């Protein structure tokens, strides 16, 4: 009997057509629609549209990473404990998680463009309010609203890519987006650190407001609708929930989604804890922290480009994903040994080196979990993208407070959370995806062994 979510064809799993299109699985068991909008118009605009989509996926690092060097200052300015200030990160991440569940189905029903523009406008307003927050409680609330609105950019950018691409082309495009959006975590902490030289943490949100306004204007003028009316779903909340239930019932889709979500949790443990680890425990300045954070992000971008330009199409996506998870495991294990004093008192350099390997390996893990999951479905790409994003951000939001559970003077909780998260990711990858049964071959075809 075929697995749920698979289309059985002459004893093999879902086959890619010569053009790279993968037939629909039982995830969306409806008649084949006519082809997605011709991507020619968007491709002719080329670099600009790619940059805009990359900018939309950069919403999380822009909203969080530029703010990271200011976290210790926020604790002093608002007279709040570090664990409470870390909730401002958690609130933003939780907002991005739940916002995607709303925006994804909306984009399947009404198209990509309208929900995206509305979300960006609300993001701008919420970010401006963050700059005016008089206390940490209101800052947490405004960060939640910022995350809810910012979810539109994340989920709809992925859905637009799914509207336009399939197979290996989609995997390569996700790696290109990682290059563009990866610039954000490189420059964001550096900018944040420089802002703190001339003003306080509120200036970070003023700049983010300006970035949001610019991105809204670019989307309004340059991004057309990519989901034709014939391909939209006219149903309400019930239909959206049924579509998501069908997606979750696809074992392989769920496996890639959860594997990516827990890999992201290891990344977010680093994002949440590193300002305190680097600055408070190892005594680095905000500018030094920003530089180290930027170097780690460069590693992620470079490895992401190796994935998209060299590995995709030559090595099976499952093998590349497995390699990325293995490297993350090695790096997290090294961090745990260093931070618990197994090798004696470790300085900043070995800890920074292990964090560099962990961050760089994300360039193999994250884009491939997204591509492999979205290859499972053509219909309801918005809902599928929402589940991918919500899972990652929700797990990250749950993980965030755990890294500070032992206080501000030990980095061991960060390493414990990272190692536990990646081991869970591997368990889902092996147990649900079963890559030895459903592998992606060199030419992008998926087949059961």
Description:
This protein is mainly α and 449 residues long. It is built from 16 helices and two strands. The protein has a two-stranded antiparallel ribbon. β1 (438-440) and β2 (446-448) form a beta hairpin. The longest helix is centred in the middle third of the chain and has 32 residues, at 167-198. It is globular and about 60 Å long.
Based on DSSP secondary structure assignment, what is the total number of beta strands? 2
User: First CA to last CA: what distance?
Assistant: 15 Å
Give, in order, the helices and strands: HHHHHHHHHHHHHHHHEE
Order of strands in the sheet with most strands? 1-2
Descriptive keywords:
single chain; two-stranded antiparallel sheet; 16 helices; 2 strands; 1% strand; disordered C terminus
Please provide a brief summary of the model.
With 449 residues, this protein is an all-alpha fold.
Topology:
Blueprint: H1 40-45, H2 47-57, H3 59-65, H4 71-77, H5 82-110, H6 113-132, H7 136-164, H8 167-198, H9 202-222, H10 237-249, H11 251-281, H12 286-311, H13 317-339, H14 348-374, H15 381-399, H16 412-433, E1 438-440, E2 446-448
Antiparallel strand pairs: 1-2
Helix pairs in contact: 2-7, 2-8, 2-9, 3-8, 4-5, 5-6, 5-7, 5-15, 6-7, 6-9, 7-15, 8-12, 8-14, 11-14, 11-15, 11-16, 12-14, 13-14, 13-16
């Amino acid at each position: 009997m075929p697995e749920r979510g698979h289309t059985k064809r002459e004893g093999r799993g879902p086959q890619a057509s010569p053009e790279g299109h993968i037939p629909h699985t039982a995830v969306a068991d409806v008649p084949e629609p006519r082809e997605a909008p011709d991507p020619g118009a968007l491709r002719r605009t080329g670099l600009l549209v790619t940059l805009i989509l990359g900018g939309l996926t950069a919403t999380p690092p822009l909203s969080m990473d530029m703010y990271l060097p200011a976290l210790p200052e926020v604790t002093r300015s608002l007279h709040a404990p570090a664990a409470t200030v870390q909730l401002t990160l958690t609130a933003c991440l939780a907002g991005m998680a739940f916002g995607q569940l709303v925006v994804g189905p909306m984009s399947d029903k009404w198209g990509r463009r309208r929900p995206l523009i509305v979300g960006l406008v609300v993001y701008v307003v919420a970010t401006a309010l963050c700059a005016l927050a008089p206390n940490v409680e209101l800052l947490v609330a405004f960060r939640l609203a910022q995350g809810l609105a910012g979810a539109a950019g994340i989920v709809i950018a992925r859905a637009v890519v799914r509207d336009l691409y399939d197979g290996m082309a989609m995997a390569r495009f996700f790696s290109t987006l990682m290059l563009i959006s990866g610039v954000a975590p490189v420059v964001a902490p550096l900018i944040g650190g420089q802002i703190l030289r001339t003003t306080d943490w509120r200036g970070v949100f003023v700049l983010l407001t300006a970035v949001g306004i610019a991105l809204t204007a670019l989307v309004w003028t340059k991004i057309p609708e990519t989901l034709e009316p014939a391909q939209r779903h006219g149903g309400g909340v019930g239909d959206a929930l049924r579509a998501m239930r069908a997606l979750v019932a696809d074992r392989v889709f769920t496996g890639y989604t959860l594997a990516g979500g827990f890999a992201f949790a290891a990344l977010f443990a680093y994002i949440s804890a590193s300002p305190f680890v680097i600055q408070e425990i190892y005594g680095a300045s905000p500018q030094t922290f920003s530089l180290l954070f930027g170097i780690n992000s460069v590693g992620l971008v470079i490895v992401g480009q190796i994935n998209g330009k060299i590995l995709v199409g030559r090595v099976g996506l499952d093998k590349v994903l497995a390699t990325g998870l293995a490297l993350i495991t090695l790096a997290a294990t090294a961090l745990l040994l260093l931070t618990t004093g197994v090798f004696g008192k470790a300085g900043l350099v070995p800890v920074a080196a292990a964090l560099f390997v962990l961050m760089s390996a994300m360039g193999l893990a994250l884009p491939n979990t997204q591509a492999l999951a979205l290859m499972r479905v053509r219909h309801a790409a918005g809902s599928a993208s929402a589940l991918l994003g919500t899972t990652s951000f929700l797990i990250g939001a749950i993980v965030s407070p755990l890294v500070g559970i032992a206080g501000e003077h030990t980095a061991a909780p960060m390493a414990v959370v990272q190692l536990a998260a990646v081991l869970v990711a591997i368990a889902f990858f092996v147990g649900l995806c079963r890559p030895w049964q459903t592998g992606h071959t060199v030419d992008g075809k998926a087949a059961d062994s």
